[in-house]
Amino acid sequence: MIVKPRIRGFICTTAHPDGCRAHVAEQVDFVRRQGPLDCGVKKALVLGCSGGYGLASRIVAAFGCGADTLGVSFEKPPAENKTATAGWYNNIAFEAAASGAGRYAKTLDGDAFSDEMKARVIESIRTDLGQIDLLVYSLASPVRLHPRTGVLHRSAIKPLGEPVHIKTLNVDRGEVHEVDLEPATPEETAGTVAVMGGEDWEFWIDALDRAGVLAPGFRTVAYTYIGSELTWPIYWHATLGKAKEDLDRAAAALRARLAGLAGDARVASLKAVVSQASSAIPVVPLYASLLFRVMKEQGLHEDIITHIHRLFATQLCGGAPRLDEAPRLDEQGRIRVDDVELSPAVQDEVKRRWPLVETHNLGELADLEGFRSDFLRIFGFGLPGVDYDAEQDPLMGRPLAD
Ligand code: NAD
């Protein structure tokens, strides 16, 4: 089949097999060009490994640190006349690149929130790796079926307390407009914390620790976004922020738990990038378009792989044997690599442009094209060297599943 982008709101319902392969290859090449990293990371588990920050983390672990990697994601295989999700192609491309470089790479597809997936992962670690020394927690999901109660929790992306009237961007139409966002109910806030908070991270460490598959000095890192005051009404001071506060709570609890292994648990605060998860958050596309323009003008732009490489190179490696000896921890003990995004030079300029930006001057003040191009690249479109008129094998050489 010939695969073209088919965009519905903030999702693209097609993914390009060759394009996804090229997207993974580009990130692998970048990491290889930076040279080896001495992180002491040799066996890593990445939850949410198939896209965005999780995929970049897996690539840096494998091709920077030389680690064997086990990944977990929730992706859809191709069906008749339908491509798979991008992450499904990314996983195959990653596994091929890693095994080509002599690294173990196995991906388990299914619900990371379930006890069944935790058991499958433990089995794979026991059989193939023995123990792991790093767990990256990079899940972004709208729902979580709670493994103990059977309740299906849904996350809501809403403000807290009062309605919020705020500027946003329709990426499809390239239009700046204002929206009224209704506040979350207490149930919606609790649902968001149940999905995106720290409980599942704690369940993972608990299960892995009980199974004896955590190596001495084991470290775990989960990703958060704090961002600028401009996005706080819909992020940090909103339902998602409550969930991320719960991640901070879990990190402190896990640090205490892992002390016996001389291990460590940290939340890392990352910069805003375009991902499947972040495209769905109102306000963020407008903020990100302005941010990218300003960071590019100031020569400070980082894409996903550059950013995660910096996280590993400067915070997880660099001779720091424990995360708490790394240089950039905030008062909550979080690793901060959002320092460049939040630097006064960048934020002052983004905040100066925020009240000025309208549909007619988007091209002058913001980087809508960069945002759109990053969005399409997630699905394998717009990669250099890919023939988008060529026939694609939607199975990427894999046999059709039963
Ligand atoms: P993403 O949408 O690109 O990736 C999400 C991953 O989670 C995918 O691999 C997906 O398959 C997996 N996943 C979702 N539900 C699952 C389930 N039930 N079982 C197994 N796997 C599942 O998301 P992202 O933007 O890379 O976000 C990852 C983390 O980084 C999140 O915690 C997010 O808050 C954080 N973060 C994102 C940004 C940003 O701008 N995108 C900024 C800072 C922090």
Question: Can you walk through the features of this model?
Answer:
The protein is of the alpha/beta class and 402 residues long. It has 13 helices and 13 strands. The strands form four sheets. The chain has a seven-stranded parallel β-sheet with strand order 5-4-3-6-11-12-13, sandwiched between helices. It has a two-stranded antiparallel sheet with strand order 1-2. The longest helix has 20 residues, at 239-258. The site of nicotinamide-adenine-dinucleotide has 29 residues, from helix 2, strand 4, strand 11 and helix 8.
Features:
single chain; 402 residues; alpha/beta; Rossmann fold; two-stranded antiparallel ribbon; 13 helices; 13 strands; 39% helix; binds nicotinamide-adenine-dinucleotide
Brief account:
With 402 residues, this protein is an alpha/beta fold.
List the helices and strands and how they pair.
Layout lengths: L6 E2 L2 E2 L4 H17 L9 E5 L4 H12 L4 E6 L12 H15 L4 E5 L5 H15 L2 E6 L5 E3 L6 E3 L9 E7 L4 E7 L4 H11 L2 H12 L3 E11 L14 H20 L5 E6 L6 H4 L4 H14 L6 H13 L18 E2 L7 H10 L8 H4 L2 H11 L24
Parallel strand pairs: 3-4, 3-6, 4-5, 6-11, 11-12, 12-13
Antiparallel strand pairs: 1-2, 7-8, 9-10
Nicotinamide-adenine-dinucleotide binds next to helix 2, strand 4, strand 11 and helix 8.
CATH top level label of the domain at 7-142 and 189-275 and 302-338:
Alpha Beta
Largest sheet, in brief, is: 7 strands, parallel
Number of DSSP helical runs:
13
CATH topology of the domain at 7-142 and 189-275 and 302-338: Rossmann fold
Determine the fraction of residues in helical runs and give it as a percent range: 25-40%
Mean pLDDT: 95
